[in-house]
Amino acid sequence: MNQSLTHSDIASMVGPLLDNRVLAATAVTGGDIASSFRVVLDHPVGSTGAATVFVKTHAAPPLDFFEAEAQGLRWLASAGAVRLPAVLAVSNTVLVLEWIDSGPASPGSDERLGRELAALHLAGAPMFGTADHKTSNYVGRLPQDNTPTNSWPEFYATRRLEPLVRQAVDERRLPKHAISLLSSVCGRIDELCGPPEPPARLHGDLWVGNRMTTANGDPVLVDPAAYGGHREVDLAMMRLFGGFSSTVFGAYAEVAPLADGHEERVALYQLYPLLVHVLLFGGRYADQALGVMTRYA
């Protein structure tokens, strides 16, 4: 991250994009990839009617890095199920979003999150992958291939697991035998993935750091890596690092009960985010990923 950007730097990126004048820019914490700022403008912008905005930037982003996130935010928001920050402007170097004041989560907000996440998933997607926004986006700083496939097991094997294991082996973050382990897993992938379900509208990177609660207790989701996939992927990610109460999962199940055997698939669907962490951070995540592959092989 580069939180050392000056007021002048932010003003030169944001001011012309919004046809506005930047009065103040303060670095805010959160996230491992981009630099984030609370920016006060000379006059209100967008449908929010506010002069304070949230700005994300990056020293050297891929050309479509912020556009891909903006597309994902718009697509998820179009379901009308759960709140996401409004996209106010986007360029190759910066993303400007609605500023949302945060507050503590409560049992009431947790119940709403569970129900609203279920509604988001049930809003569905045209296919496994993406058709109505960008084919590829990013999870963290890693490219994420969303080219559609004919079935969910095929998508999970060929678009999620295989590319990351190959990359991790090539970069010597996983041992060579990880390839054969994953091959065994993918040989059973049809039975492992559970009963067929229609594509769900996934957030795609749903750990607790990407969940907010407003000052009024409304749940908000941020930083998506959105695509059409199996809804158990989001739920497994939520369990991987903790931070979500049983109230969330209970409320979700009341709206959209999971198929039989879902508990046996949690670790399988945690394998993808574990592989992402192997490539981004290394360390103990490699042992965890190998353990999951060994279990399902």
What does this structure look like?
This protein has about 300 residues and is of the alpha+beta class. It folds into two domains: about 5-100, Phosphorylase Kinase, domain 1 (2-Layer Sandwich), CATH 3.30.200.20; about 105-295, Alpha-Beta Complex (Aminoglycoside 3'-phosphotransferase, Chain: A, domain 2). The chain contains ten helices and eleven strands. The protein has a five-stranded antiparallel sheet with strand order 1-2-3-5-4, with helices on both faces. A two-stranded antiparallel ribbon has the order 6-7. A hairpin with a 3-residue loop joins strand 4 (about 85-90) and strand 5. Helix 7 (about 230-240) crosses helix 9 (about 260-280). The model has no long low-confidence stretch (mean pLDDT about 95).
Summary tags:
five-stranded antiparallel β-sheet, Aminoglycoside 3'-phosphotransferase, Chain: A, domain 2, 10 helices, alpha+beta, globular, two-stranded antiparallel sheet, 11 strands
Low-pLDDT residue intervals, each spanning 5 or more residues: none
Radius of gyration: 20 Å
Q: What number is the mean pLDDT?
A: 93
- What is the CA-CA span between the terminal residues? 38 Å
* Strand proportion: 15-25%
Name the helix and strand elements from N-terminus to C-terminus, one letter apiece: HEEEHEEHEEHHHEEEEHHHH
Query: Which topology of the largest domain does CATH recognise?
Result: Aminoglycoside 3'-phosphotransferase, Chain: A, domain 2
Biggest beta sheet summary? 5 strands, antiparallel
Please state how the strands of the largest beta sheet are arranged side by side.
1-2-3-5-4
In CATH, the homologous superfamily of the largest domain goes by the name Aminoglycoside phosphotransferase (APH), C-terminal lobe
Quickly count the domains: 2
Helix content: 40-55%
According to CATH, what is the class of the largest domain? Alpha Beta
Which architecture of the largest domain would the CATH scheme give at its second level?
Alpha-Beta Complex
Described by the principal axes of the CA atoms, the overall outline is globular
Please count the helical segments.
10
Q: Structural class from helices and strands? A: alpha+beta
**Number of beta strands:** 11
